[in-house]
Amino acid sequence: MTTLTPPRSERRFSTRWLLYIPLLLAALFYLIPLYLMLSTGFKSFAEVDLQTMWRLPSGLHVENFTAAFQQLAPALWNSIRLVIPAAFISSMLGSLNGFVLARWKFRGADFIFPFLLFGMFIPYQSVLIPLVEFMRDINLYGGVPGLVLTHVIYGIPITTLTFRNYYATVPKELVESARIDGAGLLETYWYILLPISIPSFVVVLIWQFTAAWNDFLFAVVLTSPANWPITVALNNMAGSQIIEWNVQMAGAFLAAVPTLLVYIFLGRYFLRGLMAGALKG
Predict the structure, then answer these.
(1) How far is residue 42's CA from residue 9's CA, in Å, rounded to a whole number?
(2) What is the pTM of this model?
(3) pLDDT tens, 123-177?
(4) What angle do CA 252, 257, 260 make, to 5 degrees?
(5) How far apart are CA 267 and CA 101, in angstroms?
(6) Is 220 exposed, middle or buried (0-12, 13-18, 19+ CB in 10 A)?
(7) Which residues sit opposite 142 in a β-bridge?
(8) Contact status, residue 94 vs residue 156, Cβ threshold 8 Å
(9) For residues 151 and 209, what is the distance between their CA atoms, to the nearest angstrom?
């Protein structure tokens, strides 16, 4: 007596749903803070209570977001002034470093690369005092340019690692053919490797944008109140006696919108960059 087995396509479909269940549960778990943030942000001040925090608001109080934006607008501009140069400069420096370390075998390269990566593991707290003294010596303490310089330097190890591993996957024949045609080291980088490294640029730009936008420790230590980015300004929205949690949550959502938009619209390119070899090797 023979037993009928379901076709392979049906078994694959049922197995795929078993994989989707934990992913769906994880997504719901991570979306819970976003739900609380939005539901509280749309509530009136009288509705904000620990006993009713899971309930939907009785109405959409958009004035909470208006009040939060008015308070955070100067800091929002400071964050934009921070993340754009910090992300682009650290990405370009990482690309140049990665190209040199991947394609130019010079004496000491095997020592410089791991020594450079060591910077990824230095805790921020351990360098705060010398960093403040250094920024004061070069007259960059208290402003946005000093914070940009800090994120550029701290971003060089991860961007160098990303580009170095990506350039290592490029066929040697492509680089050798450029040398045969008379291209120098910088010309090979500019005309051959730079145009094909867009996937890695997407990865490091998103990474550096997120790291600089969400930074709080360096921002609160190195900048003055007039130059605070949005993370520090959001922390100081709380009053000394009464905290308007609805306005606070509305401000938190406004502060999170840029990074949410980046991952919503560029998330697929981020994954393609990873799959293209940006973090392999």
Answers:
(1) 46
(2) 0.84
(3) 888 899 999 999 999 999 999 999 999 999 999 999 998 898 888 888 888 888 8
(4) 120
(5) 28
(6) middle
(7) 223
(8) yes
(9) 10
